[in-house]
Amino acid sequence: AISSEDFRNLSCIVLDVDFPNLPRQRAFWGTTRAWLANALVGVTEGYRLKVRIEGVGYRVALLKAGTPAPPTDVEKRLPEPVRDFFQKQKADCDRLVFKLGRARDSILEVPTGVHVDIIQPTLFYVSGVDKEAVTRFAAKCRELRKPEPYNLKGIFVGDETIEKKEGKKK
Q: Which of 2, 37, 55, 137 could be joined to 153 by an S-S link, Cβ 3.0–4.6 Å?
């Protein structure tokens, strides 16, 4: 175990493989090295992903913690005390509200450790220290409306682009 004082004085970290002939150990070594490298980059620089929304009427809004979300159809039918309980549960964290051309808005809770900056109603950045959490949340957003190649509408993560496909011909 390394104390915090010893850790501050380190200039590099060395990982060794006990048995380099075993492929499983080499694989674990590579995975551990990648996790440590991602953690160091996350702590020093952080990770940031651009998410853009393409489509007429598609937009996103951020509901800060403490702001109650509009009740769903199911919640409207619940008794008042139960509905209030669910509203308080939802208000503990930030939420993204997506309007994606559906009958109901899609609401995603922003996980702890992930920060969302909305630049425009169709452009926002997902940032944080943990690369896996940032990319997982961006992928969750993308799943709500994957890019489709015929009209080029959907949610694009990073510099993602797709080729437009030709429609049916008569």
A: 55
